[in-house]
């Protein structure tokens, strides 16, 4: 892990759609349209008619109509991406900060950033993880580094194709994927250049999408960072309005096609799900966040027992 802040400690990057589209994870796009992952493989097929025909023929007869539907959806999605290339920009911001772990909290510069630890035992006996486990502890006396990021679409795509519900929904689902793809491209740049802890990294995009690189990029709202209210902490550190992101009173990001979170370089870091937490952890976490328990209960409703 790095112990000093790299020279390129913060920055704003803008990408065009054609620069970002290769980083789209099509599995999540097709999932949003009700397709199982195997149908997303059309994105890996060469565009010639014979290749598409062979792909279609690889499905059982009862699934070929669905596969043909996926093929058409992918074709139309790419047509919309071409149209969006002249209309929108994917904007990303990052900052590299000094950090240490203090129990289940992170100390990021002058900001205390509370986190949640897993509470449900694992059948394999693996440890109960917290994201703070991947940052050097304060007791070591040695500062570590953490990355912060946010990405968003520059234009209000919610207004595009209002008179065409199908194309409007295409734009919305593609905007979500482009924001995530911009983050993927940003993270690659940070690892190799800005932070530079993996300067010789050389992965194909499929390898990147399989997360074969060193480090993790947990986003707010994802299983290891489920509390949306930490968006306020990230905003205070990043000033996300620089790329057009504002927060609602509940911490939701606008535009909707936005994503933010943390970047960690520890070679042993990995993704996990906090899962269900008890009332005692809820109260402890609310205290560390400086928020009333009942308000925090709303933010963590999905992590509390029914």
UniProtKB/TrEMBL annotation:
Organism: Prevotella heparinolytica
Source organism, top-level taxon: Bacteria
Pfam family, one: Met_synt_B12
Gene Ontology molecular function: methionine synthase activity
Lineage, uppermost ranks: Bacteria, Pseudomonadati, Bacteroidota, Bacteroidia, Bacteroidales
Coiled coil: none
Keyword Methyltransferase carried by entry: yes
Glycoprotein recorded as keyword: no
Protein name: 5-methyltetrahydrofolate--homocysteine methyltransferase
GO cellular-component term (any): cytosol
Record PANTHER family: METHIONINE SYNTHASE
Ranges of residues in domain AdoMet activation: 1-306
PROSITE patterns: ADOMET_ACTIVATION
Gene Ontology biological-process entries: methylation
Keywords: Methyltransferase, Transferase
């Amino acid at each position: 892990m790095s112990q000093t802040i790299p020279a390129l400690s913060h920055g704003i990057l803008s990408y065009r759609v054609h620069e970002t589209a290769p980083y789209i994870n099509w599995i999540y796009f097709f999932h949003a349209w009700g397709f199982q992952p195997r149908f997303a493989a059309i994105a890996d097929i060469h565009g010639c008619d014979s290749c598409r025909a062979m792909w279609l023929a690889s499905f059982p007869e009862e699934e070929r109509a669905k596969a043909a539907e996926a093929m058409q959806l992918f074709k139309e999605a790419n047509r919309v991406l071409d149209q969006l290339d002249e209309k929108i920009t994917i904007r990303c911001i990052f900052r590299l900060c000094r950090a240490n772990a203090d129990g289940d909290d992170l100390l990021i510069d002058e900001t205390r950033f509370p986190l949640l630890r897993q509470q449900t035992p694992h059948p394999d006996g693996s440890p109960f993880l917290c994201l703070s486990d991947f940052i050097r502890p304060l007791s070591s006396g040695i500062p570590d580094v953490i990355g912060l990021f946010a990405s968003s679409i520059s234009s209000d795509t919610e207004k595009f194709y209002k008179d065409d519900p199908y194309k409007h929904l295409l734009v919305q689902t593609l905007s979500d994927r482009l924001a995530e793809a911009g983050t993927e491209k940003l993270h690659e740049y940070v690892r190799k250049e800005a932070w530079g802890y993996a300067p010789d990294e050389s992965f194909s995009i499929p390898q990147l999408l399989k997360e074969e690189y060193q480090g993790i990029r947990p986003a707010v709202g994802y299983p290891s960072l489920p509390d949306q209210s930490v968006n306020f902490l990230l905003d205070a550190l990043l000033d996300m309005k620089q790329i057009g992101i504002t927060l609602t009173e509940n911490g939701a990001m606008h535009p909707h096609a936005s994503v933010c979170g943390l970047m960690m370089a520890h070679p042993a870091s990995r993704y996990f799900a906090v899962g269900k937490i008890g009332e005692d952890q809820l109260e402890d976490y609310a205290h560390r966040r400086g928020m009333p328990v009942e308000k925090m209960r709303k933010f963590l409703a999905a992590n509390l027992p029914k």
